[in-house]
Amino acid sequence: MKGDLRKEQILEASTAVFAEHGFERTSIAMICEKIKIGRGTLYQYFKDKNALFRELLQKHARRVEALMATSVVDETISSLEEFMYYRQRRVMQEIRDNKEIYMILLHEAPAKNCGVDDLVRAIRRRMIHDTAEDLRLGTKLGFYQVEDPELVATFFIGAVLHAVEYYFFDAEVPADPDELARKIVQFELKYLVDQSG
């Protein structure tokens, strides 16, 4: 098997194992068993479990960056609700489609002994930055007036991440991503309209 393909296979398998067992309980042996390879093969690509975990999150950070880089909608959006729903729907679809990595990001990555605090902070900073840019555009388009887009974006991202954790990971029946996006938009709209009015 080609090197890049094998490395991707290891990263994919480790995502499932880390999501199921957590960082602490996951062993290199468990990952190797999942994809039926020997430890030596895994160690050709990753120095240890921490290096594997770090690369897994770096890969995801690049995906989040690409998603957020295209999240600011253009000026053809005609209503405030449409503008906000566009952004939230993309986020909810991303989380739905990559549930395991978000479970890792929200539950495992913040652990102090994982050695990825900087990556977790970078992902959150990127989400906040790009949400603040969306808020600036909404202000420019006259949808609302936001005096401190970074503060509002920080508040929104924190609330969204907690909602995702509860409605996607902890609820007996996970929420529909489109429905959750609509509920989040209604919450955000209430705040923005009240603040602007």
Summarize the structure.
This protein has 197 residues and is an all-alpha fold. It is 78% helix and 0% strand.
Calculate the mean pLDDT score and round it: 85
Give the number of helices. Answer: 9
- The CATH architecture category of the largest domain equals Orthogonal Bundle
Shape: elongated
Oligomer: single chain
**Would you identify the CATH H-level superfamily of the largest domain?**
Tetracycline Repressor, domain 2
Number of domains: 2
Catalogue the unreliable spans: none
Give a quick account of the main beta sheet: strands, pairing sense, barrel closure: none
Could you name the CATH topology of the largest domain? Tetracycline Repressor, domain 2
Order of helices and strands: HHHHHHHHH
**CA gyration radius, whole angstroms:** 19 Å
State the CATH class of the largest domain.
Answer: Mainly Alpha
Separation of the first and last Cα atoms: 61 Å
In total, the number of strands is 0
> Strand-residue fraction?
under 5%
Structural class call reads mainly alpha
Share of residues in helices:
over 70%
